[in-house]
Amino acid sequence: MKIKNDILALLKNLAHPAGIAGVVIALAIPFLVYLAPNIGHKETIRQLDLNLPIPLFCVQFALAIVLVVVLNKDFREWFRSILPAKAFSIMALVFAVAVSIFAATQIEARHRVQSDESVFMSVAQNMFYNHESGTCNQGLFFDGKLQCTSKSNSFKTKGLSFLYFLGMPLFGSDLHWIFNMELLMLPLSFLLMFLAIVAWTRQPLLAFFASLLLALQPTVLFQYRAMSVEPLYIFLSALSLLVFKWAFDRNTVKHWALLALILAFFAQTRQETAFCLFAFIIFALPKLLDNKDYKAPAFFVTLSLFSVPALLTISYFQGFGFQGGEYEAHGHFIEDLLKNWEIMTKPLNDNGELSNPFLSYFNYLFALGVAYLLFRAFYDLRKKNFFYLEVLAFLAIYHLQTYVILENVSGDFGIEINQRYSLVMLPSMAFVAALPIAHFVEIIVKTSIAPNSKNAGRFTVIAAIVVAAVLSGWTAHYKADFNKNIMYNRNHLTIEEHEILGWLKEQPAKNRLFIYGRPWHFVGYGISSIHYDQARKMSENEINDLTKKYDEVYYIRGLDCWDSQTYHKKAVEHRIATTCDVFEKEMELEGVKNFLITNNYWVQIARFLGRKSYDPSKILTVSAPRTTDTTLVLGIELKDPRPEAKQWMFKMELNNVAVIEKQYEAGIFEINVTNDSIKPGYNKMLYTVMDQNSKVLGSIEDYYFDAKNGALALNGVQFESHKQAWGSLHTNASIEGNKMTVNGKKFKYGYGTHAASETIFNLEGKFNTFSMQYGLDDESLCSNGVKIQVLGDDKVLAETEFFKAGFLGTLATDVKDVQKLTIKSIANGSIDCAHVDLINPEVK
User: Fold this and answer.
1) What pTM, to 2 d.p., does this model score?
2) Cα–Cα 20 to 30 A to 535, which of 94, 398, 594, 726?
3) 565 pLDDT above the threshold of 60
C-alpha cells in the first residue's frame, strides 16, 4: 500500500502544465518518428535521417559545453566530496596508464571489424564534405570535394562518426588519427568507471577492481586499438553513471538537463543502447518527481529530442533484415547465450594460445559475483537495506539491450566479428566479478593481516596492489598472442585491408581511384573508390574521362570475388564472384601485386587500363592435336571478324621456339609440325594473339605427349602403391577434382595429391631421366608449405625447398638403372591446405 501511495505521490508532482506538456512531447517524438514510415512518410524519415543529425548534434554539444561551464564550480565541489583516499586514486591512475601503455606497445592499431568500422568512417567523410549523415558507398575525391556517386542512409548510429567529423578540421580527413583517439579513451574509461562506482558505492576497492578487471580483458584491449564504436560505448556508459550520481545528489534542472544530453549521445553508440536508457529513467524518477517543478519535463524533453538521430535510424530501418540471411539470426537467444559462455570460458587452443580474446577466470569470477550479489541483496532486505537489490534491478533493466543483441543481431561469438558485442556486457560483468574479490581482500586484511589496526587502510591498498599485479601479469603473459593479433586473425577482410593499405603506404603519393567490391572502405580513408558494377555501366567516354582524371586507377579482386560458400550461415556475407569474373573479361587489366590471404583466396591488385575493345573468348580456340605418319597437326580457329583485328598478330611456339607468326585473320586453319621437331615426352605449345603494340590480348598454353624413344607419361600408367594423409589421389585433376591450377596457370596432366603423400612407380631400370613441374593448387591457399622428394630405390635423388601457394617449380633428375621411383610430398608442420599438384610427370 505504501509503494502505491509513493507512486501516486510522484505522479501528482508531474500533474502540472509543464510536467504534462513535457511528458506528452517526450513520448510524442519517438512515437511519431517510429510511426511515420508506417503511414506513408518513410521518405520524410529518410531525409531527416540524412540531414537532421549534424545540426542537432551541434546544438547538443553547444548546450552541454554551456552547462559544463555554468556548473563547473559545483562539479569541483561535488567531485572533491566523492574522491576516495589519495592512495586509491593514485593506484587507479597508475594502473590505468600502465594498461594503456601495454595496449599501445603490444597490440597493433588496425581494423578489427572492417566493414562496420569503415561505415563510421565513410559517414564521417560525408558529414565533413557534404554535411549529410548517410554512408558514402562510392565516392570520388577531387579538388577538395567528395562526390558520392552512391550513398545510402547509414544503418549505424551516428555518434562516433560525428566525433570523427569534429576532429577532421584539426587532425586531417584521412582518419588514421582515429586509432590514437580510441586509445586515449582507454585510460579515461578506466578512471571514469572507477569514479562512477566510487560515487555510487563509496567502495574504492570495489571500484578499482571492477575497472581493472574490465581493462585487462583481451577483447577490450583489442577494441581500444581499433576503430570500433564499442570503446565509445564503455566511455559514455561510465560517464553517464558518474553524471547520473552528480545529478542525483544535486537534483537541479541544470544537472538533469546535462545528464539527458549525455544519455542522448550515449544512445548514438548502438541502436540497442536505447534500451539502456530505461534503467536511468526509472531510477531517476524519485528525484525528478520529488517536487512540482521543471526537472522532469526538462529531462524528458531533452532526452527525447536529442535522441532523435538514433530514433530516426531505428525507424527508417525497422523491419529490415540485417543479419543471418537464410538462417535468420532471430530466435536463438538461449542458443547464443550458451555458445558465448562456452567461448568466453574456454578460449584456449590445444597449444595454450588464446584462440578467442577472453580469459576463463573472468567468467568464473562473474558467476561467483552473481551468487554474492543475490545473497547480499536478500540478506540485506532483513535490515531494510535495499542497495544491492537496487543494483540487481538496475542491471536487469540496463541489460535489456543484451537480450536484444543476442536475439536480433546474430550475437554468436563463434563468429569472430561478433565478439565485440561482449563489450556491451563486460563493464557490468566486471563490476559483479569485482564484488567477491573486494570482499575477500577486505576480510583477509581485517582478520589476518591487520586486525584492529589503525593501518588497515594501508594494508588494504598493499593487498589490492598485489592482487592487481597478479591479474595484470596474467593478461600480460599472453603478450605473444596479442602481438599475433589473435583477435579476428581469421577475419579475412581485416587482413585484406591491412595488406592493401600496407602496399599503398609504399607507393608515392598520387591521386588514385580504386575499383573494389566494398568501395566505402577506401572512401572512409579519403581515397576515391567505386564498385565493379558502376565501372561496368560506364560508357567508353566516361571510363576514359575517369582514367584521365586520376593519376592511377586500380582494380582489386578481394574476398568477395572468390566464392559464395565460405561464410558463416549466421553472418552477413555477400560474394560477387561472377561479377568479378565478368569484369575481368571485359576490362583491360595489368597485374601489379598479389597478397596471399589465408583460407583460399588472394588479394590481387591490377592497374585498370579501360574497357577491352574485343571479346577474349572469340579471339582464339585450339582443337586437340592429331598425328599423321610424318606430322603433328594443330587445329586453330581465329574468331574475331572485325577489320581492326587484322592489325593483330598470331604466333605459335613449340617448346619456346616460334613455329609460325602471321597477321590475324578470322577463319580456321591448321599448323603442321614435322615429327623431327617433336621431342620425346611433353611438348609445350603456346598460342598467342597480340595487338600492333605487341600487347598480349589472349593466349592458350597446351601440351602434347610424344611416346617415341620409350618416353612415358607417369600419369598414364598404374603406380605400384600410393598413400596420402587426406583424401584420395586424383589423376589429371586437383585433390578436390578441379582443373589443376597453380598461381593462376591451368594444367591438364598430372596428379592431385595431399601431403604427406608417397607414390611408388616400378621403372624396372628402363629410363634415364625423370622430370615434372609442381606446386600447391590455387583451390586451397593456406598451407604452411610443402617440399617434394624424389627417391630412386630408397635413395634421395632430388629434393626441393619448402614452397607455398603461388610457387610453380620444375624438378628433373637422373633415374638411370632405378628400379623403384618414389615421389614424396612432405608438409611443413600442419598438413592443412597442402593440396599438391604433380604436373606433367614423365620418364624417358
Assistant:
1) 0.84
2) 594
3) no
